[in-house]
Automatic annotation (TrEMBL):
Pathway: Carbohydrate metabolism; galactose metabolism. SUPFAM superfamilies: Galactose mutarotase-like (SSF74650). Pfam families: Aldose_epim (PF01263). It catalyses: alpha-D-galactose = beta-D-galactose. This is Galactose mutarotase. GO terms for molecular function: aldose 1-epimerase activity; carbohydrate binding. Mutarotase that catalyzes the interconversion of beta-D-galactose and alpha-D-galactose during galactose metabolism. Beta-D-galactose is metabolized in the liver into glucose 1-phosphate, the primary metabolic fuel, by the action of four enzymes that constitute the Leloir pathway: GALM, GALK1 (galactokinase), GALT (galactose-1-phosphate uridylyltransferase) and GALE (UDP-galactose-4'-epimerase). Involved in the maintenance of the equilibrium between the beta- and alpha-anomers of galactose, therefore ensuring a sufficient supply of the alpha-anomer for GALK1. GO terms for biological process: galactose metabolic process. It comes from the Eukaryota.
Length: 150
């Protein structure tokens, strides 16, 4: 993985770094596709922006998925809520991979959770510790909800 030009400060005050991962002989030995993955990390005054771009440099199509995990610290997980999942179907990995539909307006995590919500909206708000964290995603149809507590 290369760090393109190192981290640098933009004219607007943001600090950004760009990481590039391209296929090599070893990757093609286990996944025979040519690609370039570009990962941009931007720090703003009150925002963290993560951008992932996957470029198919091959002549054949391929499918892929990314697992972008966001870990948030909270004083009380049972007070944490996540919005914009109502009506979405999800796979409940804790309950034998059963497919279910979310019925709650706000999803609260009260126990061990491992869900993959399908065809979700582009924006979710996570309320915790009296603050709101907005998660905005584009071209990522799924949203995961994972908490490995018992």
């Amino acid at each position: 993985m290369d760090l393109e030009g190192g981290a640098h400060t933009l004219a607007n005050g943001d600090t950004t770094a760009v990481f590039i991962l391209s296929d090599v002989e070893q990757t093609r030995a286990i996944w025979d596709f040519r690609f370039q993955l570009i990962y941009r990390v931007t720090l703003r005054n009150n925002q963290l922006v993560l951008e992932v771009e996957v470029v198919n440099t091959d002549e054949k199509e391929f499918e892929f998925t990314l697992l972008l995990h966001t870990y948030l610290k909270t004083d009380d997980i049972q007070l944490c809520s996540i919005s914009n999942l109502k009506g979405c179907s999800y796979i409940d990995k804790v309950d034998g991979n059963k497919e279910k539909t979310e019925t709650a307006e706000l999803v609260y995590i009260k126990k061990a959770t491992d869900r993959v919500y399908k065809k979700t909206g582009e924006k979710h708000s996570c309320k915790l510790n009296g603050s709101t964290v907005n998660i905005i995603k584009k071209n990522f149809p799924d949203t995961g909800n994972y908490l490995p507590i018992t």
